[in-house]
Amino acid sequence: MPLTREFFDTLIFVVIIVGLLLAARRLRADLTRPLPPDKSEWAQDDTQPREHKD
Questions:
Q1: Which tens digits make up the pLDDT trace of 12-27?
Q2: What b/e sequence results for 12-40 when a residue is b if at least 16 CB atoms lie within 10 Å of its CB, and e otherwise?
Q3: Is the separation of the CB atoms in 43 and 36 below 8 Å?
Q4: Cα separation of 37 and 16, whole Å?
Q5: Is 4 helix (H, G, I), strand (E, B) or coil?
Q6: Helix%, strand%, coil% for the chain, nearest 5
Q7: What percentage of the chain reaches a pLDDT higher than 90?
Q8: Whole-prediction pTM
Q9: Measuring CA to CA, how many Å separate 54 from each of 11, 13, 24, 48, 49?
Q10: Which DSSP state fits 38?
């Protein structure tokens, strides 16, 4: 099988399609994962406004 321009073009398209499928799968997994509990200790420190002490 000779290595032609069409072969490399097809190879590039296949790599792009596989990459897009893997990215979509990872994005779906990230968006559908369960969220942590609302009142966790680590979230209270980072999300609450800080008081200014004058």
A1: 999 999 999 999 999 9
A2: eeeeeeeeeeeeeeeeeeeeeeeeeeeee
A3: yes
A4: 37
A5: coil
A6: 65, 0, 35
A7: 54
A8: 0.58
A9: 65, 62, 50, 19, 16
A10: T
- CA-CA distance, 4 to 10, in Å (whole number)? 10
The token pair that represents 40 in the structure block: 């966790």
Structure tokens, 28? 């779906």
pLDDT on residue 1: 65
Q: Tell me how far apart the alpha carbons of residues 19 and 1 are, in angstroms, rounded to a whole number.
A: 26
pLDDT of residue 35: 76
Residue 3: phi and psi, rounded to 5, are -85, 95
Q: Show the CA angle centred on residue 23, arms to residues 28 and 13, nearest 5°.
A: 140
